[in-house]
Task: structure prediction
Amino acid sequence: MKCVSLGHDERVNTINFDSRGKRLVSCSDDSCIKVWDLDSNGEIKLSHSWKAHQGKVIKSIFSDFIFGNVIASCSAHSISIWEESKIFEEDKKIWAFFIFIILFRFLDQ
Result:
């Protein structure tokens, strides 16, 4: 077991694997989401990083069964869904909703 720094500037709130166990998504109080790839040697490499919300990102999760390769994330007042292309970017946000958030999840989980 290795200890790995996730490179966030503030507290990390969640870390989740994709369904295949080959990628991680982390989110933090620094407003950022980071996607990490796991190689065959178990090494973790940062593949994507972006500012996802105006405030703290409370949760981020993958869904690649029903919805294709997307990440959903939420802050205290918004949910965003990000479509994966070569890079997750602000212009790849495919849906956003602004409301008080307590909990969210994909139906396939």
